[in-house]
């Protein structure tokens, strides 16, 4: 598992890759006493309120930067590669 701490590093692979530990589904929701919320409608209401209070996550912007060599104007031939994913039901 990526959340298991490596003894020699004292870090988990997830901490090395993401900078923090992974949250598992049981850890994402505040624990409640089962006697407190016995009605399913109350539980759903409690869960909705809890989720509304969660802070938004910071998103990453992924962009692929293209590279054009500066001396391309002096080239006599250029290979153009058409490498893209095919759409569904597109002939090969």
Automatic annotation (TrEMBL):
Record-given protein name: Uncharacterized protein
PANTHER family found in the cross-reference section: RETROVIRUS-RELATED POL POLYPROTEIN FROM TRANSPOSON 412-LIKE PROTEIN, RETROVIRUS-RELATED POL POLYPROTEIN FROM TRANSPOSON 412-LIKE PROTEIN-RELATED
Domain of life of the organism encoding this protein: Eukaryota
């Amino acid at each position: 598992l990526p959340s298991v701490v490596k003894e020699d590093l004292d870090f988990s692979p997830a901490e090395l890759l993401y900078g923090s530990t992974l949250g598992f589904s049981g850890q994402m929701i505040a624990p409640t006493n089962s006697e407190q919320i016995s009605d399913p409608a109350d539980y759903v209401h409690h869960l909705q309120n809890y989720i509304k209070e969660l802070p938004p996550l910071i998103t990453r912007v992924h962009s692929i930067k293209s590279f054009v060599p500066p001396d391309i104007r002096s080239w006599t031939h250029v290979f153009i590669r058409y490498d893209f994913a095919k759409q569904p039901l597109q002939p090969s």
